Amino acid sequence: MISKVLLDFCTCLLLSLLLVIPFSSSQNVETNRTNNCKQAAVCQPLTAATCFGTKLPYALTSTTLTGLASLEDVHRRLRLWEGLTNVPKCWALVQPFLCAAYLPRCVNETVDLPSRELCELTRGPCKIVDETSGGWPEFLQCENFPYDCVNEVSKVRFNTTGVCKPPLLPTDSNWYPWVEGCGLQCENPLYSSREHRQLHTFIAILGFLCLTCTLFATMTFIVDWKSASRYPALIIFYINCCFVLATAAWLAQFLPGARENIVCRRDGTARVGEPNGGENLSCLIVFIAIYYFLTAAVIWFVLLAYAWHVFFKMLRASKEVIDSKVAYFHMFSWSVPLILTITILTLSEIDGDSLSGICYVSFSNWYIRAGFVLVPLVLMFIIGGYFLIRSKF
Description:
It is a single chain. The protein is mainly α. Helices cover 56% and strands 8% of the residues. The strands form five sheets. A three-stranded antiparallel β-sheet has the order 1-7-6. The chain is elongated, with a radius of gyration of 35 Å. The termini are far apart.
């Protein structure tokens, strides 16, 4: 009986120890965490109990973290950060961090440190700080702050309404990596509305003349198809067909409301890096029609030069030689533009331009523009010029 009582007593004692030790351990961890989140400081009354126009829920603070001489200097430094209101996504996150660092709560000669999580939240949206102002001050480096700190400032609701500075507009698209939440307005800010209208008028006149001439040439071939459907004359027909389709796509901007649908996003910013999910397909359709058919027309020009070269060199046998290569003509002239077009679509390097009123190969990445526009054009004209010169000598 006595042994049973002793056994029950030992069991209860062991269970009590098991319950007390974890509680004591967690209490110690919590105490250490609290101590890590505080720093010794000299408290002083807040001269202005607001930070960025928002009332702070305490009356004492300290300049210990900043190393500044007075609260006037602190408020002067805080005003310098107000330029970030033009970076909306940054401004929404940086206010509580800056207030917690510049005007921390001070109680019993200790200040509450900002948490490292609060600091790290600002680094992505506020990349512009590293880009333009020499980076964050030393005392605002995230490694200076511990994790899991509860801070009174983080509970305060700040005015998170940022304003993009013209010519930037609010957007959810990733326009500039260091100015999150803002994108360039659709209408090119380097040119006035009057200059836009003048250029659009010029494009309309030139496009109408080009469409009229190429349509006339195309209809001439169709009317006399039996005698005209022979090479090398038939190549001229294909060149004119390509120009008709490309010009029609270019003039599509003059349909009511079409230009804005082609070159602008729904939020009023310019189209950059298309294809981009969530927007209509007008930009892509115009790009494909213009780029594909203009590139095909240039390739047909090379084939025309080659056909003339064969015609002048071989005369009687030229028809048989050219006819034997017709399949290769079509394969080369239609497949190469297709490959280039698909590659550009895959790279998402299509931009809208309010001046020309179309979407075309990147207006911002000159390497892509040179590789997919300039290089093919120069190469095709060199080859075509070679065959033209050889046909005369």
